[in-house]
Prior knowledge:
- This protein has 307 residues and is an all-alpha fold.
- It has one domain.
- Helix content is 71%, strand content 0%.
- It has helices spanning 2-6, 11-32, 37-63, 72-80, 91-108, 116-131, 141-151, 157-179, 184-191, 204-227, 236-255, 268-281, 285-306.
- Helix 4 (72-80) crosses helix 12 (268-281) and helix 10 packs antiparallel against helix 13.
- It comes from Flavobacterium aurantiibacter.
- Keywords: Membrane, Transmembrane, Transmembrane helix.
Amino acid sequence: MITTLFSKSRPLNYLIVACLALGSSIMAFQADAKIEVSAVVQQISCSILWLLSLLLINFITKRNSVSKENTFPILFAAVFVLFIPEALRDLNILIAHFFILLALRRLISMQSLLAPKEKIFDAALWISVAALFQFWCVLYLFIVFVSIVLHVSRDYRNWILPYFGVITALIFAGMIHYFSDFNPISYFYTNAVVDLSFDYFQEVSQNAALSAFTAFACILFLAQLLSLSGKPLILHAAYKKVLFSFCIGGLIFVFSTSKANDLLLFTVFPLAVMTASFVEEMTGKWIKEIAVWLLVISAVTFFFWQL
């Protein structure tokens, strides 16, 4: 039933996903049990950002044909975030994630070869701005250079443009420092640290959610990797960027000093694309339905367990 319903782009589908996103966001907020004006304002901001992120995911997948004419990507994005309810109340992570989506929108659309210089600069700028909220987002600059290699490597000016994007973001950070207490030098000094330790969760529910999320992610990543050769040649570059995006999202979690499941939010977009692709390629109707229900039930179970 789920696969049949979401196999088309219907207004009802968007309404269901919006209700799922808002409902999970509200429940995650209530679990925090801080009913204060500032907390309510922050949660409203988080909910709006998450809805905007889902709209952006829908735009990226449809505009660049990385999924068929369906609403699977936004459904699976809303489902995967149920494994990590902490992300729905972490404003900094949601802001950084939104800017990364803006950058990926520009990078994935480079396959059209329209205005590549503007897209390179914009992507580097958005990634650098995201790094002001979560430092290790700076790793996404790697995808900028991958995109240059895949599409426009012959023009030497394209190799310089990312640095201008970074410099622009640094100027922006300097202006913020001038008008507020934010110190970019102190921020980079504190956060530009690699911490590979994993002795961090005390609650069994968070460890179990991480294990389940990782299991689903590894299966989907391998499936996407193995099926890449069967994709239309024109879309190979886009799917490679999706795979790189997933890997970098995982590295952000591994490298960060303050490890928490909410950092896995950066893997949600590529996972949503990979899951949509996986479901689209499955031939057996009931096998497809069982696979989707298994994911949904697992996500909902871990969501309520962690509240």
